[in-house]
TrEMBL record:
This is Flagellar biosynthesis protein FlhB. Keywords: Membrane, Transmembrane, Transmembrane helix. Pfam families: Bac_export_2. The chain crosses the membrane at residues 41-61, 100-124.
Length: 158
């Protein structure tokens, strides 16, 4: 490794702040809803627990599927078609499918809430939901869609 005559602190050229935030500033940003979080952790935990639910509740799913297809192949194929029968059949199928999906949905919701609570604790803030009218400026939107003439002219030089 080569040594240099002068020591140069490259942090002086960095645009990011090097000082740690004060507790007051950290509390203010937390109240605004600006917390460090990852979306991968809840997603991974939901996937893990959903597959664990298949392992643990496999008998329940097997029983429900056999009941659903057993009714389909034994009773529903020989049924007279009428508006009342079709509506009854649709309702019955939706209830069976809903009963099969309800445990998975419940596990996913509970795991997502717990994973987010693990990351940053309980936080209830309406600040990110506030409407910012300055973001709805149509002129700025047009500037982003249509670049300025200067940048388009510079591309012509190549």
């Amino acid at each position: 490794m080569q040594t240099y005559r002068w020591q140069l602190d490259l942090q002086m050229f960095n645009q990011e702040k090097t000082e740690k935030a004060t507790p007051k500033k950290r509390q203010e940003t937390r109240q605004k809803g600006q917390v460090a979080k990852t979306v991968e952790l809840p997603g991974a935990l939901i996937l893990l627990f959903a597959f664990l639910s298949f392992f643990l509740l496999g008998g329940f799913y097997k029983e429900r599927l056999l009941h659903l297809f057993g009714d389909l192949l034994q009773d529903w194929l020989t049924m007279e078609l009428s508006a009342g029968n079709v509506m009854s059949l649709a309702y019955q199928v939706m209830m069976e499918v809903g009963l099969m999906l309800a445990p998975i949905f419940a596990i996913a919701v509970v795991v997502a809430i717990v994973a987010n609570l693990i990351q940053f604790g309980f936080l209830l803030s309406g600040e990110p939901l506030k409407m910012k009218l300055n973001k709805l400026n149509p002129i700025n939107g047009l500037k982003q869609i249509f670049p300025s003439a200067r940048s388009s002219n510079s591309s012509k030089a190549y």
